Amino acid sequence: MTTPKNPTLEAEKKKQRRVAMTTTCVKCGEALIAPDWSEFVSEQLVLNLWTCTKCGDRFQTKTYMPPDAEPKMSQKDWEEMFPPLLVA
Ligand SMILES: [Zn+2]
User: Fold this and answer.
1) In angstroms, rounded to a whole number, what is the distance separating the alpha carbons of residues 23 and 19?
2) Residue 61 CA to ligand 1 centre (angstroms)
């Protein structure tokens, strides 16, 4: 893990943690906080792509959202909540 250059981005990652979920690297067991990329496949299925910060292994997880968990999020809401990395 490198030293964070952008405190705002770190704050966003913490926010993301609430919605997305942590996972552990399938290879080395390193705890990963936020996926590299999340994609809404459907209202209830989210694909998360992860890159391990320790060993660099890449894998994906699927998250099934309970139907009553959150109101439907549009892509726009998602982007507002998780600004693209170019916001620096
Ligand atoms: Zn790993």
Assistant:
1) 13
2) 14
